[in-house]
Amino acid sequence: MNLMALGIAVLALVAADEDQPPPPVSIRVVAVQASDDQEGEPKKQALRFGSGTEEIRTAIGDLKFDNYKLVKASTVTAQFNQESRVPIDNTYTLYLQPLSRESGGRVKLNVRVTMPGKTPQAEPVNALKTTVIAAPGNKFKLRGLELDDGELVLVLTVRG
Amino acid sequence: MDKCRWLKRVERWFDGESADAQAVERHVAACSICADHVRCLRALRDGTAAVAVPETINDLQFPAFLTDIHERIGQPRRSHRGFWALASAATAALIVAAAAFTLMTGGPQAVHAVEVESYATELEGASVCTYHTDNGTATVWVSMPKEESL
């Protein structure tokens, strides 16, 4: 009888565990504006990295801009199968949606960056939408969207 | 077992070393023990002689014997050299083929810590591509048109 009760308790625990959603994913987001001093001019001075951009310098090392200015840095806790909204500036908004855990602790993730439509009534436009599988601790970046006189660069790191 | 004190003398007589052969012969004829012993010795001698017949090559057989030896000396030894040469050539060909395949296919695909499964944009005239930097950072790049995209 005691064994049967123990078995039922174990089954209940297992079932409860299966019902639990996977733990949320922590994602580091750093947004910078990359720009050149004067277009067409030969580059004479050293690159200028603004305060707060230290953690992403390796990830943006391939870019050929003169200045990198921090726009936003935050750490997002994203639930699986739910979109987490991260406003970047007045134009762009980042959405993060973890989809699944993959082998080796990697996380499959939907990422999209929206911007307002052509008219105030129009729906926001997906300026960029991508699905990545990221190993914890490894950075990836989204680049190319216009930001003032430069380009928006988003560096993301899944932390687990 | 019965013994006779003449046995030693009988054995010497049987080997042809007796000084008084006639006396021993008379004794053997009269003594059943010694007569039995002589029969045993004869059986033993006959058996040993039958076993110890040496194989000999007589003069008539000798030329054929030498001819056979010369033929065996002249025959080439069985060798596995051909097999090993073929195996070496096949191994070398396999290595060359694998190297050529690796060179022509660009080698095994690098395993990246971040894989980009899909990418798209809804911006008019814009395009998207993806690449990995030298340090392995996955990058999704929206290329905007020169003019206003919206």
Entry summary:
With 160 residues, chain A is mainly beta. Helices cover 11% and strands 47% of the residues of chain A.
What does this structure look like?
- The complex is a heterodimer of chains A (160) and B (150).
- Chain A has 160 residues and is mostly beta strands.
- Chain A is 11% helix and 47% strand.
- A five-stranded mixed β-sheet of chain A has the order 2-3-1-9-8, with no helix packed on it.
- Chain B contains five helices and three strands; from the N terminus they run H-H-H-H-H-E-E-E.
- Chain B has a two-stranded antiparallel sheet.
- In chain B, a hairpin with a 5-residue loop joins strand 2 and strand 3.
- In chain B, helix 1 packs parallel to helix 3 and helix 2 crosses helix 3.
- The interface between A and B is medium-sized, with 29 and 28 residues.
What's the topology here?
The complex is a heterodimer of chains A (160) and B (150).
Chain A: H1 2-19, E1 25-35, E2 48-49, E3 67-78, E4 84-87, E5 93-101, E6 107-115, E7 125-134, E8 139-147, E9 150-158
Parallel strand pairs in A: 2-3
Antiparallel strand pairs in A: 1-3, 1-9, 4-5, 5-6, 6-7, 8-9
Chain B: H1 7-14, H2 21-30, H3 32-51, H4 62-74, H5 81-104, E1 114-120, E2 127-132, E3 138-143
Antiparallel strand pairs in B: 2-3
Helix pairs in contact in B: 1-3, 2-3
